[in-house]
Amino acid sequence: MSETLTIRVPDGEKAHWEKAAAKVKETVAEYVRKAVRQRAQAGEVSPWEKHLASADVAVPAPTNANIRRAFSERRRHKA
Fold first, then answer.
1. Least CB-packed of 11, 28, 33, 72 within 10 Å?
2. Residue 71 and residue 32: Cα distance in Å, rounded?
3. Taking a C-beta distance cutoff of 8 angstroms, is the pair 31, 20 a contact?
């Protein structure tokens, strides 16, 4: 079962929606429904999700020499 939602918008905004909907050959109702649906779905997706697994690079395991060097540099900077 569908629900009805009534909202008030400024005249200029409604005219803008009508022009935009006409460009894509949709009714204003379809245009607004799609916009609201996209906005709701965007809130559910993490902004980082598109970056996950984007870098597929094999990194070699650190050697003990690299670890010792990193820790010794950290100690030098603290003193």
1. 11
2. 57
3. yes
Q: Decide if 26 contacts 17 (C-beta within 8 A).
A: no
Per-residue pLDDT of the chain (79 residues; tens, 9 = 90+): 788 888 898 889 999 999 999 999 999 999 999 998 888 887 777 777 777 766 666 777 777 887 778 878 766 665 5
**Could you give the CA distance from residue 79 to residue 75 in angstroms, rounded to a whole number?**
7
What SS3 state is found at 22? helix
Distances (CA, A) of 56 to 46, 53, 59: 20, 6, 9
User: Residue 25 and residue 21: Cα distance in Å, rounded?
Assistant: 6
Query: Taking the CA of residue 34 as centre, how many other CA atoms within 13 Å lie in the half-sphere pointing to its CB?
Result: 10
